[in-house]
Specification:
The structure is a single chain. The protein has a domain of 72 residues. Helix 2 crosses helix 4. It starts with 42 loop residues before the first helix and ends in a 10-residue tail after the last helix. The chain has a two-stranded antiparallel sheet. The protein is 41% helix and 4% strand. The protein is mainly alpha-helical. The chain is built from seven helices and two strands.
Length: 184
Amino acid sequence: MGREIRRVPLDFDWPLNKVWEGFLSPDRFDEEPCPDCKNGYSPRAENLYDLWYGNLPFDPASTGSTPWRHDSPAVRAFAERNLSNAPGYYGRCEAALAREAQRLANLFNEGWCHHLAQEDVDALVAGGRLYDFTHTWSREGGWQPKEPPSRRPLRRSTSGRCAAWATTASTLTSSSRLAASGRA
């Protein structure tokens, strides 16, 4: 446990060697945990979360999507990038590329986040969750809506772009996370 020096008002009157109560969470904020919740979400929200990230069985056909294949251009390009970034780990041969492409295809087929339907895209846009597609970023102004603003929802073709983006984004953050496949 460390010690910190803090600036306080001159009239701050508190006994030495006693933790100031302002640093403590009052007992009135402690609640009984929900007996039906694992992570603080409702059971329905937990189910959706687990489907999204592939922690529950997911079937790409449930969103009208076709499963990713090891020979899909996006999957193969991602596998090639992985191999080029870590040749000592993956290897350099065609067999290593095929193994990595199959691993990625399996990973991408396990989660709803890689198989977005148009309704999913619409809900994500409405919730402000697709800023990469609907806004631009600058250091000066932060996130700004794209000009001219689109008055129509993102089209079906965008759901494929979102799925490819989700494939890239989630694999970059958790490429080793594997879960069950298929949707409940």
